[in-house]
Design brief:
The chain is an all-alpha fold. The protein is built from five helices and no strands.
């Protein structure tokens, strides 16, 4: 899970993605009074490295530079840093949501790219 080398298939990537989504949706449904900021922060800390590892391996499998994964993972942090200076809470929330959604959408679109067969390309 913490292997940054090699390849990850689309099914491996989306199995983990769907599992994480179901678990955290279930937790927020079961514990609605739980401070969402607290458990989101814990989730980000616990899942950052494994998710980055899997995303980098998925990008390797699609023959896309892993630096794009690093950029897409760090953009929400940069967006959050920008939104800290905004005094209006509604605008701050919109900035954060758009930044996170854009990065997630970028990762998902790139993760949908079919695998590239290394052996077939190296024979030519």
């Amino acid at each position: 899970m913490l292997n940054f080398h090699g390849r990850a298939t689309r099914s491996e990537f989306f199995t983990l993605f769907i599992t994480i989504s179901i678990v955290f949706s279930g937790l927020s449904w079961i514990f609605p009074s739980l401070n969402s900021t607290l458990y989101e922060a814990i989730a980000y800390i616990l899942l950052f490295i494994p998710s980055l590892s899997l995303t980098i391996r998925r990008f390797n499998d699609a023959r896309i530079s892993p630096y794009f994964a690093v950029i897409l993972f760090t953009l929400p942090i940069i967006v959050w840093g920008i939104s800290v200076g905004v005094s209006n809470d509604i605008v701050k929330d919109v900035i954060n949501d758009v930044g996170q959604f854009g990065c997630l959408l970028g990762i998902l679109i790139i993760a949908l790219i079919p695998s590239k067969d290394i052996k077939a390309n190296s024979l030519h």
